[in-house]
Amino acid sequence: MSGLLIVGSLVLLALIAPTLSRHHVLLDPVEQSARGLDQDGMPLAPSKQFLFGTDNLGRDVLSRVIHGARISLSVGIAAMATATIIGVTVGVLAGYYGRPLDTLLMRFTEITMTIPALLLAIAFAGLMDGKQVHPHPSWLPWHFLDVTLRPGLGSIFLIIGFVSWTGIVRVVRGQVLALRERDFIQASKALGSSDARVMLRHILPNVLPTIIVLAAMSTAGTILLEAGLSYLGIGVPPPAPSWGSLIADGQPYFIAAPHIVIVPGIAIILTVVGFNLLGQGLQDVLDPFQKPVKK
User: Fold this and answer.
1) How confident is the model at residue 149 (pLDDT cuts 50, 70, 90)?
2) How many angstroms separate the CA atoms of 21 and 69, rounded?
3) Are 275 and 216 in contact (CB under 8 A)?
4) pLDDT tens by residue, 36-67
5) Residue 38 lies in a domain
6) Exposure of 265 by Cβ count < 10 A (0-12 exposed, 13-18 middle, 19+ buried)?
7) pLDDT for 239-254, tens place per residue?
8) Does residue 293 lie within any of the structural domains?
9) How far apart, in whole angstroms, are the C-alpha atoms of residue 250 and residue 253?
């Protein structure tokens, strides 16, 4: 319940961020203003005018963090979807057909797992040219994920998805190995069902609860990876406000203006904790037999 509350609140803020900006409840997240700097040209501390203070260019930190939720959440969710599709496909094929396809796919998966995800993502990012992205998609709330289709962001979520699928493969494969020997699977084959029909009509529905739980938990990892890439300067292209780039921008001013780093850092922590709690809650609901026994 707490995970759903945290994630739901963050998604709601991300959805209404453009509307708040249009009605001047939030300031423009990319607008540089001398009003946001003191006489020495330093960022302003949190105040009534700027609740979370300003950054080194006089931009409102609150507005940038809320608009950054659109970027970070949409890229994280899109990357999770990419990783889930790849992981489920490989896991089902490996578990259902067995050797030699299983051996080939799992050796490739294990080799991929030996390479750190961040290092692999950096290598892929170096092969793709990021382009500038404007942080204001359509005002309509159902265009929330439209932000992932803009130049530069599409390559980012694909990169993160391509390096985040290995953990899903192992879990899905293990469940498929157990399911393929069940009586209802053998009966379906005996009735002449094709392999594709067996996998789509019988295998996938039975592993779907596990897939949903894995997807929720892996979203936390994809958001962290996106923040890491943006922090290193190879993620979301500026001036789009990503949480990772906000931390990088505020690092040189951490002593004089720690709020520039602390606020987006708290946003990342809350999001990661929220998705992990959501995943645990979904596991309790969808797979109650795996609940720990209370002594």
Assistant:
1) very low
2) 14
3) yes
4) 777 777 888 888 888 888 888 888 888 888 88
5) no
6) middle
7) 778 899 899 988 888 8
8) no
9) 5
Any domain includes 42 = no
Say how far apart CA 201 and CA 190 lie, in whole Å.
15
Which residues form the domain of 196? 2-30+49-288
The token pair at 125 is: 């990012």
Tokens of 2: 């707490």
List, as own/partner pairs, every contact residues 120-128 make where C-beta atoms lie below 8 angstroms and the sequence separation is at least 24, other chains included. Answer: 120/163, 121/159, 121/160, 121/163, 121/225, 121/229, 122/229, 122/232, 122/234, 124/159, 124/162, 124/163, 125/155, 125/156, 125/159, 125/229, 125/234, 125/235, 126/234, 128/155, 128/159
Query: Cβ of 284: how many Cβ atoms within 10 Å?
Result: 12
| Residues facing residue 37 across a β-bridge | 43
Residue 51: the pLDDT is 82
Give the tokens for residue 217. 């938990």
Quick one: angle between helices 259-286 and 2-22, nearest 10?
130
CATH number at residue 112: 1.10.3720.10
**How far is Cα 272 from Cα 222, in angstroms, rounded to an integer?**
10
To the nearest 10°, report the CA torsion of 163, 165, 167, 170: -130
- Bridge partner residues of 60 (DSSP): 54
Average pLDDT of the chain to the nearest whole number = 81
Query: What is the count of structural domains for the chain?
Result: 1
Give me the phi and psi of 138, to 5 degrees please: -60, 155
169 domain residue, yes or no: yes
Torsion of Cα atoms, 247 then 248 then 249 then 250, to 10°: 50
